[in-house]
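Thread: "does anyone have the structure for this chain?"

Original post by V.I.:
We have the sequence but no experimental structure in hand. Need at least a predicted one for the grant figures.
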Amino acid sequence: MAQRTYNQILDMWRKLGANHLQVKTFTVGDIFEVDANTVVFPQVHLITEQASMTPHQITYNFKLIAMDLVEPDESNEDDVLSDTMQYIQDFIAAFRNGAGAGSQFQMTQGEFVISDTINCQPFTERFDTSVSGWVADVQISVDYDASACDMAFN
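Reply from O.Q.:
Generated one for you, tokens below.
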């Protein structure tokens, strides 16, 4: 595990989203600030929940939301739930295993430690549109050195 800043972690999420072959839109922040009229589905959205520190580690808690449009008759709802779960699995696998050889970015295995258990909850017809998908609770830990030598004080 390595020391990484919050921005470096967000940047890695964004790179994963930009390079995923099936995800069309990747967004970060408050989900209700995303303009639904500009989203091209399928979409993956990242929300930061909180962070906790120990003397040697920072753990960030995220909600990863994968969603896609469901037909008005809901005939593709099972397909949407299956596909969006696969997107979550892809993101988790990239953080666990590092980026593949053909990847457009570099991520080393073990650079980030992701929780062993990822809890996922399905949802249907949410966010004022006909979208369904999954919300995954993800914890990512990075090294933190709480020594006095690294403080930014005079």
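V.I.: this helps a lot. The two ends are 29 Å apart (CA to CA).
O.Q.: and The beta strands are 25-28, 43-54, 57-69, 113-114, 119-126, 131-143.
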